[in-house]
Amino acid sequence: MLELRDVRLVHNPGTPGEVTALDGLSLSVPKGQFVAIVGSNGAGKSSLIQIVSGTLRPTSGTVVIGGRDVTRQGDHRRARHVARVFDNPHLGSVPELSIEDNMALALRRGGRRGLRPAVTKAHRALMRDRLAMLGLGLETRLSAPVRLLSAGQRQSLTMIMAALTAPEVLLLDEHLAALDPGTQSRVLELTLDLAADLGCTTLMITHNMDHATTVGDRLLVLSGGRLASDLTAESRGALTSDALTTLLAAA
Ligand SMILES: Nc1ncnc2c1ncn2[C@@H]1O[C@H](COP(=O)(O)OP(=O)(O)OP(=O)(O)O)[C@@H](O)[C@H]1O
């Protein structure tokens, strides 16, 4: 369960540049629910993701993950429970390191700094198992440097890495935006498979209206740092991407 209670996020308070990015947002997401989030530019989507990841702390309000109040906990301490994938496929892995070393780094995420446990046989088996899900043959190329992979392959690897520590919450910040349509479909399918396998609570920001109207269990529309609409998959059923575009423009 992920809960935000009356969360406000104000940038540059008390200055002429004061901006309210989140304006008393309350949200409750049951464990395992997959939520798509849309909103116009500046609606507060990335702010919401950063509040949940712990990169930003709210000006007021409370963030609860799995029953624990994590409001004052920084992103490093949350990293074992909260994984985040960015829009840029090149941000999720280290190009000069091998696939195995990148995955080993992901396995250590949120662990104590400085500790470098060796990659065990069990780790390597887990890596191969997860990489095989991609159907790209990467499980036989563990020592290949990540820089040799295409953008789609790298984003697929990033998804696999994000899921390695079985996070409670998976945050996807327009993670398909830089991919071509065919690769988008493949990475989206992988995303849904991983989220279902792990049973993690997932928030996926998207500007793709087709994805917003079809993917996941719930659709949130953000506007001005508030929830303008909160639709279940059932109530979203008849919503076309054109109708959602109109709804967004009016929100
Ligand atoms: N560091 C910052 N300093 C000042 N204002 C900020 C900062 N970060 C975000 N904002 C403002 O907060 C508001 C919400 O921004 P946010 O990035 O969350 O929107 P978004 O919905 O993710 O937009 P986009 O779709 O363009 O990425 C915007 O008005 C933005 O200009």
From TrEMBL:
Pfam families: ABC_tran. Its main location: membrane. The keyword Transport applies. Residues 2-249 form the ABC transporter domain. Coiled coil: none annotated. It is a peripheral membrane protein. InterPro entries: AAA+_ATPase (IPR003593), ABC_transporter-like_ATP-bd (IPR003439), ABC_transporter_ATP-bind (IPR050166), P-loop_NTPase (IPR027417). SMART domains: AAA. Keywords: ATP-binding, Cell membrane, Membrane, Nucleotide-binding, Transport. SUPFAM superfamilies: P-loop containing nucleoside triphosphate hydrolases. One of its GO terms (molecular function) is ATP binding. GO terms for cellular component: plasma membrane. Transmembrane segments: none annotated. This is Putative ABC transport system ATP-binding protein. It comes from Actinocorallia herbida. The lineage of its organism: Bacteria, Bacillati, Actinomycetota, Actinomycetes, Streptosporangiales.
